[in-house]
Amino acid sequence: MYNKQHLDPHDDTSAQRPDFMPYQNNGGTVVAMGGEDYCIVAATTRLGLGFAIPTRNVCRYAILNDRVVLATAGMYADTVALHKVVTARVKVYQQQQEKPFGLFSAAQLLSNTLYYRRFFPYYTFNVLGGLDQDGQGFVYGFDAIGSGEKVKVVCNGTAQALIQPILDNQVEKKQQYENKQIEKWSLQEALDLVKDVFTSAGERDIYTGDAVDICTVTKQRGVVVETFPLKKD
């Protein structure tokens, strides 16, 4: 019978290491919102580790092409590894096929990449946003093993419980006291909303702060990145 007393965690010859834990949550919050002719993908820059802040300026987004952006929260080492894999596959496809990689194809690629690692998954929580073939903005939200959904607005990361209800209420008009018709948001209105929800979340979530990188995708200008400062404490 297995006996824990016979297992020395500091003995390299042990058959099993009870303290093996390859994952850590470095926090971060990512938001994506699609509009009539634009898409916004935003990601915070603070990297947390317990109650420490090793760095305040990490990049949690990857620009796959001029119409698609990926943003990731969770373990930062897995974030970097995942972005390298997805970015490389997109570049290979575009060079071989000589045509741009579409939003739906990027969503399928990300889902497959996450799912094939499901038994030892990337500890990441992803949002993917961009313009479809008609120039309309859509976003996808994914869990750690590749289950995704196509929506108009989504949030992942440590502040998801704080931000997602606001987005549902304001954008999707859910959980309203009275039924209201869904309105079209202009690009500037959407940017203001994204900045407001991150500012609010930074007051309650210790892993959300310092700054947020906001990627705006439009047909005319491609991907434009803006850094919006948040609280440093």
Automatic annotation (TrEMBL):
UniProt entry keywords in alphabetical sequence: Cytoplasm, Nucleus, Proteasome
Compositionally biased spans, kind Basic and acidic residues: 1-14
Spans traversing the lipid bilayer: none
Annotated GO biological process: proteolysis involved in protein catabolic process
Signal peptide residue numbers: none
Annotated region (Disordered), positions in chain: 1-20
Coiled-coil zones: none
Pfam families recorded: Proteasome (PF00227)
SUPFAM superfamilies on file: N-terminal nucleophile aminohydrolases (Ntn hydrolases)
Main location: nucleus
One GO CC term on file: proteasome core complex
Keyword Nucleus tagged: yes
Location in or out of the cell: Nucleus
Keyword Nucleus among record annotations: yes
InterPro entries assigned to the protein according to its UniProt record, in alphabetical order: Ntn_hydrolases_N, Proteasome_sua/b, Proteasome_suB-type
PANTHER family: METALLOPROTEASE TLDD (PTHR32194), PROTEASOME SUBUNIT BETA TYPE-1 (PTHR32194:SF2)
Record-given protein name: Proteasome endopeptidase complex
